[in-house]
Amino acid sequence: MSEWFRGKLGEILELKRGYDLPARLRISGKIPVISSGGFSDYHADSKVKGPGVVTGRYGTIGKVFFVNEEYWPLNTTLYVKNFKGNHPKFIYYFLQQIDFQSCSDKAAVPGLNRNHLHLLDSKIPPLPEQKAIAHILGTLDEKIELNRQLNQTLEAMAQALFKSWFVDFDPVMDNALAAGNIMPDELEAIAEKRKLVADSKKLISTNPALATKFPSSFEYNEVLGKWIPEGWEDVSFPEIVDFLEGPGIRNWQYTEEEDGIKFINIRCIKDGDLTLETANKLTREEALGKYKHFQLEEDDIVISTSGTLGRFSFVRKEHLPLSLNTSVIRFREIKGISTKYYIYGYCNTDLQYELETRASGSVQKNFGPMHLKQISLLHPRMEVLLEHEKISYQLFEKRKLNLQNIDTLTQLRDRLLPELISGRVRVKEIEEWTEQKLAMVAENRANYNSKS
Question: Does some domain include residue 229?
């Protein structure tokens, strides 16, 4: 490592404070505005040419962001004004290994002084190795992002299916129009719009056998206050969802034992999945004894009930064993009455409205079993729910595989990043190994696609 440069951080790069831009002065545009927490808005003008690297100066400390295009860094950030000949993407990864908290003042709201940061002892490799490191870590990040984008598409498809069948009632409307049934006055405008939809996008044309499982007329439901498909009914939430609120686990019950069982909190539910790296643990004896009733299972749905209401996620087998905790409620299907995919779709639509309108608390909103028992919701025929389950299963299994790939790639990146940046591992030592890991991820996807 004799060829590595050793010196002060200020000799490697120059940091500069961002610029004020109050919300009232922002003009709609395509320029990303970066705050200490990351992307926050768009503006019509830029302050810095890309590519750029930004970190939090005030408020949120320690996060580092890479921006490809021109951008506007806010005054709560520090951005790299001068890379001094170093590779921007490498600097992005390099700064992630800086202990920014050690340079933060002790005020109630932490802040950074760039002059203090410039004095930090640092070392970096020559430019060719910087590029090689950035390529390896960047490739992993690109594959992680690709899997996330694929999941966004799958989730949008699942939401569109749920909305079409159980919110807009498209198959029922098409059946009613084909049968020449009289439409209620309140649905006339919707019916006219539906007539304009191409037959190639209607279930009655693409899958006539499946379309026959849907009614061909509507009836008014007093409880739900709207027209619903004939033969479908309103039910109370407990009739179709098995739900359980988590217990109140206290700080003194936490354990550091290696075989302890993690328990979920509302911060673990993020971006439609569970992040358990910082979850606390109970002793195995207590979790499987006193709290056995609160053990989660694969495909349970967990939802936040305090603070940010309504964040929800499926529980994956990779998360288990896992215990329920306070401020989180578990939803589970009732066999023969409901399906997990119908419950998931409901969580994404009408339940969000119910939570906001029924939640109590003046300072921090929260809801619980008492509120859920007050909810009435639509219960379609079981044969329709089972058909919805067949289609949804394919979408969510692909989503699950993508999440597994994200886990694998993230763990690989997080393992390599400190080793490569510090020089403890050199690029030539791990290039072949990294390619093998990436090939395994690709093979898993290919195997799944061949089976589906």
Answer: no
Burial class (CB in 10 A: 0-12, 13-18, 19+), 355: buried
pLDDT bin (cut points 50, 70, 90) of residue 365 is confident
Residue 20 is part of a domain; what is its CATH number? 3.90.220.20
CA distance 263 to 322: 5
- Rounded to whole angstroms, how far apart are CA atoms 259 and 327? 24
Report pLDDT for 107. Answer: 56
- Say how many domains are in the chain: 3
Specify the pTM: 0.88
pLDDT score recorded for residue 452? 60
Q: Is 339 part of any domain? A: yes
Same-domain check for residues 252 and 361: yes
Q: Does one domain contain both 271 and 319?
A: yes
In a 3-state reduction of DSSP, which class is residue 399? Answer: helix
The span from the CA of 395 to the CA of 158, in Å, is 7
What single DSSP character describes residue 247? P
Domain holding 133, by residue range, is 125-214+384-452
Nearest to 315 by CA among 302, 334, 328: 302
The three-class DSSP label of residue 81 is strand
With CA atoms as reference, report the closest residue to 183 among 166, 169, 197. 169
